[in-house]
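quick one, two chains, predict together pls
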Amino acid sequence: MTPALELDCRDLPCPRPIIELARHLADVGVGELLAVVAHDPAARHDVPAWCRMRGQEYAGQDSAADGAPRFVVRRVS
Amino acid sequence: MTYPADPTAGYLDSASSEPLHPAARDTLLAALDQGYADPRRLHRPGRSARLLLDNARAVVADGLGVRPDEVSFTSSGTEAVHRGLLGLHRARARVSDRIVHSAVEHSAVLHAAEWAPGETVSAPVDERGRVRVDELLAAADGVAVVALQAANHEVGTLQPVAEVAERLEGVPLFVDACAAAGRVELPTGWAAAAASAHKWGGPAGVGVLLVRKGVRWTSPFPRDDRVDDRSTGFENVPAALAAAAALQAVVAERAETAARQSALVDRVRAAVVAIPDTDVVGDPVDRLPHLVTFSFLYVDGEALVHALGRHGFGVASGSACTASTLEPSHVLAAMGALTHGNVRLSLARGSTADEVERFLAVLPDAVAEIRADVGL
């Protein structure tokens, strides 16, 4: 997956990665991908939950260039 | 040292521990003087302690709808879980060593399963936290034991225990009833079950292990030479009797308590969904009467627990930011629920409508202030 924007939240504790996700959604266009890179163990559950609650699409999990977990969201509205 | 006038005012965490029932307190004080001796001894104080212990067993059996010889007292709910699950597992060693459990079992069940020799399989739950019965049963064929809670301790959802028990062919079912016992009738069909007295208003340090008559159960731990060969250590007779008195009182009051608490929980659910970006978790109907769980987007669970504490309310949270491990609640995660900004509210016997209204009056601003701090 090639996101339009990747947020470095590697060192942020829960729930900061989700806060950054919300802050930067408008930085990508509708239909584009926004990625959150986070070591926080809650992010794996809370990025999909955020998508469900905010009506966005969860595109899945992969890895950033350094191997850190990366969670990808498609902006649909 | 000074104490607040009412030590339970604002206490909304009965799922962690219910305040001691007055019936338990009176019984405990009387039994401390009467039940000190070794119930195995033949002298008068020993016979008196034995009488009190047998009385406690009979009253607990009546309250939980089982036979007295199916009841054993342990030193905690956790110990009852360990003995119940692992004793069924041990007795099936020649058949299988595999344990199947739901993904939302209490950590006491998960740790016991992990400790036992053999593989464990976790069965998924739906978005309300109810185990997916077909997937549980598909994994359960020929295993040593299946573990399924009566109701979930974090979100209150009742589990389909009777249905699972009916469809398990020859595999014993262990039921962790710690969250449910005393509050709702126990489900049917299990081989062994566990309960915890301080969750229904008895004293801490009393667990109840139930093993059905005719079920094969083998102690997983060193044995002892006490009154009851399913437990070990010197019996805490006064506490067992106090636990029994609390259970008897709670069951007698249950219809009224459950109706009142269930209506208050409905009120909380309706008010909380009006707060933006809130995930109200668990089954709205098929649930424990006293418990409701919700999560707020962008909110640090620990900050919210402290903010509510400053308003005089004591609630629990399953969020990672409130746990020493930094791991989010495995229950919320398994349900696909939002794991941060989580609050579990559980009504105590004495919680009033006025208390709930005052809580609901401060909650929206407490959430809004934390969100404003992060600019959302």
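Chain A has one domain: 5-74.
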